[in-house]
Amino acid sequence: MSDFKIDNNRYFIFCCFVLLFLLTICPFILFKYPILVDYPNHLASFYIQGNIDNNQWLSENYLVKWEIKPYTIIEGLGGILAKYFDIFLVGKVILISGIVFICSGALLLRKYINGSIDLWVISIFLFIYNHVLFFGFVNYYVSSGLALVAMGLWVKLRNINYIVKVLLFSSISTMLFFCHLYALGIYAIFVVSYELGLIKYSYDKLSMPNIINIISQFLLPFILFVIWWNGNVKNGVVTFYNYGDLTTKIVALLSPFSFDYGQNDLLQILFTLISILVIRIIYPGGVSIYNKMKIPLLTLLVVIIIMPSSLAGNWGTDFRYPFIFMVLFVVSIKFDENNKNTVYFRRYLLGLVLVVTCYKIYYVSNIWNRINPQYQEFENALQYVSPGSKVLTVQNDTGNLSGLDARLYHHMSALSIIQRSTFWPNLFTYVTPIYPTIKTEHIDTAWGSQLTVDDLVSNKYKNGYTYAPHAKVYWENWTQDFDYLISIRFENLSTIDIKNLKLKFRGSFFDIYQIVH
Where are the beta strands (DSSP E) in 444-483? Predict the structure, then answer.
C-alpha cells in the first residue's frame, strides 16, 4: 500500500494543477508581445479580418475570402475577436486557449485511461513550452489541444448509440479539418490505433461493422479534403516531401522538451533526460503502459520517425507530432501502487517536472523580456511609415545576438499592418482567409524566406518565379512597387547605400528607409 496518500487528494491535485497552469500562462499576461516566430503574421491576419470593412487602406491591399480549406476556424475566431477587442489581447487569448485545450485533453485522457485523475497529470506542463510554440504555429498549437480533447471524448463515448456517435464525431472530425489538417491527422491516427489496440488486448476480431464504426466519422472530412486539394493553388511545390538530415530528425524528436534550442535550453534538455534516467535506475520497476495505449503510442512513434521535415510544401512537419506523443505517453503511464519503488520514482519525477517547468517559464520569460522593448521601439517608429503604403523588409545575416534567435525578428514587420494598415508581402496569404488584391498580388508571396540587401541588388529573377514551395519572387521592381524598406540590421551600424533610399528613422537595431520614386 502506497504511503504517498497525497497523490490521490483531489483538492491537492486541483491546487497543484491550477498553480502550474497560472505559472505557465504568466509570460503571456506579463508581456505585450509573446515573441514567437510566426506570431506577428497571425496577429496581422486577425487584424485584417476584424478591420477591413472600415479601413480603406486594408481593403486596397487585401481581401478576405472564406473557402473550403483547413486553417480557417482559429483564424476566423481571431478575426471575430479582433472586431471587439485589442488585437494584442486577442492574440494572447488565442494562445492561452491552446494551453487550456491541451490541459483539458490531457485531463480527460488521464481520467478515462487511468480511471481517475492523479497528481501525475501535472507532468504535461513539461511540454507546454515546446518547439511548435517557439515557431508560433498558432493554428496547429490550438488545434492540437482540440485534437487531444477529441481523443478523450472518443475514449469515453465510443460505446454510445451508433447514430449519435457518428453525428457527434463526424462533427468533431469536420471541425478539426477546418482547424488544422495535421490535428485531424493525429486524431485519426489515434482513433484507428486505439481501436486496434482494444481488439488486440481484448481478443475481439476485426469485423466489417467495427471498421465502419471506426472510419465513418472521417467520411465528410475526407470529402472536404478532396475538394480542397483539387482546388488548391499549387504554388510550385518543387518536391512533395523532404526528409532533411539526421540532425533535423534529432531536433524533431527532442522538440517537446525544447523551446528554441539555445545553449541553456540544450543544457536543460540534457539535465532533464539524465535526471529521468538516474531516477529510473535508482527506483526500477513498478511502471508500465496501459495495454490499450500501447498500439496508439507505437503507431504514433512510427509516424513520427518516418515523418519528413517538409510535406506537400509545409515545412516543420516532423516536429509537430512529438509533443502530442509525449502528452499521450504521460497520460498512458500505469503505476503499480504495491511496488515501493513506484512511490519514490513518481515523487522525485514530479519534483523534477516542477523544477524544469519553472525553469522553462523563466527561460522563455527572459527571452521575451529582452526582445519586448525592441518590438515596442519598432512599433513606435512605424509612425514614420505612411498609412496604406507598401513595405519591404530585409534582414542582415547576424553573428552574435547574445543568445537570441534571429528568426524571432523575421515577421516583426507584420506589425506595420496593424499600426499603419500597410501591405507587407510575407503575410500568410492563400493558406489563410487573407488574399492579396489585384493591385498587390504581383508583389505577394504566401511564404518566403527573409530577404537580404544582396537579394535586392543582385535581382536575378523575375516576379512570379517560384524558388521554393509556396515562395515566389516579388521584389524584381522593388524600387517602383514598394514605398518603404525596413532593414533589420542588428549590430551592423552601416547604412544601405542604394539610390532611391532616404533614411527616415534609425533605431537601435533597425532602419526605416523611404523609397523615393
Answer: 466-468, 471-472
